[in-house]
């Protein structure tokens, strides 16, 4: 049995939020004081989480990405990774992280079977980093990036969100930094998923504008490799006729990729979501805690997929932002 939705799309990519807590306070994600965190007894335990994810792998999930909140804050992360990477179908595992804990943990994660990491880095300027994340931790992030590459968690990908008047002047510098070090940079359009509900479409730096900004320094041409279900459109980056590598742009708002979506999500408190923007959740925690079988767990995933909508609907006049912010859903 596979995770097929009503439009024939098949979910093979599971995003698992391990915690809603974070050691940064990125202004576009959460307020300075943080958020009311999930009560700890609502979080899936390690054993519950590994069991639920392994059932999803039985249902054809091939890629499992850990996120949050900040997933490296989850105690015993290497054991969780090992519990999932050891599934006989050999799912690919990865982590989306702010990078702060990677300096210490990259090798242990690699040894546990982790394949790759995405590290979020929106600025190279220490002062701006401090303003943007409300913490003085850029050195830890840079160390984390190096540790990930040294541990062989390759390719190291870097995620950046550009904001008007904040870090948009750094688009070229961020790309040069990543190309020099062999990191794959992906710019992500800012989405209406902030806890403060302050997102404003007019303020967003859209994919076209990102390409214009990069075009001031580089020649950026569409990559010929087929995109498949990848959310990032890939471009080759050339300078003076020399091919320097690639850059990705995730235009979730202006270039949505819902038609090829292959994702399903699990929140830290055990709710299955069929979309980042879904307004409904499917409770797998009570099934697990009520003594449900693996088939019962599978039924929750299948039920969630059966009602997946065609698209995120950000452009519909009736669009309403989900109740939970990105940090609680799992970005
Ligand atoms: N804390 C980890 C991190 O920052 O990588 C994982 C969770 S974070 C929510 C995942 C990604 O979502 C990060 O790359 C972050 O920049 C991005 N993000 C957060 N809020 C966003 C928003 N409103 N629009 C677009 N991307 C956002
Ligand atoms: Fe934390 Fe990631 Fe949100 Fe920044 S984007 S506050 S690092 S969860």
Number of domains: 1
Radius of gyration in whole Å, from Cα?
19 Å
- Tell me the number of helical segments per DSSP (H or I, 4 or more residues long): 10
The small-molecule ligands in this entry are: S-adenosylmethionine, iron/sulfur cluster
Give the proportion of residues in helices: 25-40%
Question: Uncertain regions: pLDDT < 50 for 5+ in a row?
Answer: none
What is the CATH class designation? Answer: Alpha Beta
Count the strands? 12
What is the CATH fold-level name?
TIM Barrel
How much of the sequence is in beta strands? Answer: 15-25%
Q: Classify the secondary structure makeup into a structural class.
A: alpha/beta
Order of adjacent strands in the largest pleated sheet? 7-8-9-6-5-4-3-2-1-10-11-12
**How far is it from the N-terminal to the C-terminal residue, by CA?**
27 Å
Please give the largest β-sheet: 12 strands, mixed
CATH superfamily: Aldolase class I
At CATH level 2, the architecture is: Alpha-Beta Barrel
Order of helices and strands: EHEHEHEHHEHEHEEEEEEHHH
Outline type: globular
Summed over residues and divided by their number, the pLDDT gives a mean of 95
Write structural notes for this entry.
The structure is a single chain. This protein is α/β, with parallel strands linked by helices and 331 residues long. It has a single domain (13-329), classed as Alpha-Beta Barrel (TIM Barrel). The chain is built from ten helices and twelve strands. It has a twelve-stranded mixed sheet with strand order 7-8-9-6-5-4-3-2-1-10-11-12. The protein starts with 12 loop residues before the first strand and ends with a helix. 44% of the residues are buried. The model has no long low-confidence stretch (mean pLDDT 95). Bound molecules: S-adenosylmethionine and iron/sulfur cluster. S-adenosylmethionine (SAM) binds at residues 22, 28-29, 67-68, 70, 96-98, 120, 159, 161, 188, 190-191, 193-194, 326-327, 331. Residues 22, 24-26, 29-30, 68-70, 98, 120, 327 line the site of iron/sulfur cluster.
